[in-house]
Design goal:
218 residues; mainly alpha
């Protein structure tokens, strides 16, 4: 059984993903370099593909029927959900890192920090946009797990991997939407805020105030 046969879906999973036009425009308005954005999306592609790639690597040393254990429905569906969750976590972390960098480099204060802070229910709504794009994979995993004959199993695995690649396109669209309509606009607002005074300037004003107070007292 050639269980390590090439999959047409793997190249699609790892192909350079594309931002939506709306997201590209929003990222540019926020001052985010397109090269950074493209690298970010490529990193997310690897994160989402990892359950498929990891099972492919392990399958090389296994034979039927032991091979089926790698593709049991419930663990595979859980792996798909976990991969989508990791995509969300990396996306949120990237936004937070950019926001922190903007605030520090432009010496923005508490108002800026509040502006980029999302309420828990807002974050959960954004997370759901990304995670639900992977939910259809549960049905594909179930069909693959039920296959009890080698040829049928290979067909179902190929179908599963193809649907995983399709799901990644849906996840990409969700990530683009989150950046375009939630994250990038907040970063653009930071760019429009006026920088605060440098720490040394604040210290100088305080020293001057103390000296003036002492002169008035004396």
């Amino acid at each position: 059984m050639n269980h390590a046969q090439e999959s047409e879906a793997i190249p699609r999973l790892l192909a350079a993903p594309r931002w939506s036009a709306e997201a590209r425009e929003a990222l540019a308005a926020a001052g985010i370099a397109q090269a950074w954005a493209d690298d970010h999306l490529c990193e997310l592609a690897v994160v989402f593909a990892e359950p498929v790639l990891e099972r492919r690597r392990r399958a090389v040393s296994l034979e039927w029927p032991t091979l089926r254990e790698l593709y049991r429905a419930r663990p595979l569906a859980a792996a798909a959900t976990a991969a989508a969750d990791r995509v969300w976590e990396r996306t949120l972390a990237a936004f937070q890192e950019l926001a922190t960098g903007y605030i520090r480099s432009r010496r923005l204060g508490l108002r800026a920090r509040r502006r980029v802070r999302f309420a828990p229910q807002e974050l959960e709504g954004l997370r759901r946009r990304i995670v639900r794009a992977a939910e259809p994979l549960a049905h594909a995993a179930e069909r693959c797990g039920r296959a009890d004959e080698p040829t049928q199993w290979l067909e179902e695995r190929a179908r599963l991997e193809a649907q995983w690649a399709d799901a990644w396109q849906a996840v990409t669209a969700a990530v683009s939407d989150v950046w375009a309509n939630a994250f990038a606009p907040r970063l653009a607002e930071l760019r429009a805020m006026r920088p605060g005074p440098a720490p040394w300037a604040i210290a100088l004003v305080l020293v001057a105030a103390v000296i003036l107070a002492l002169l008035l007292i004396s």
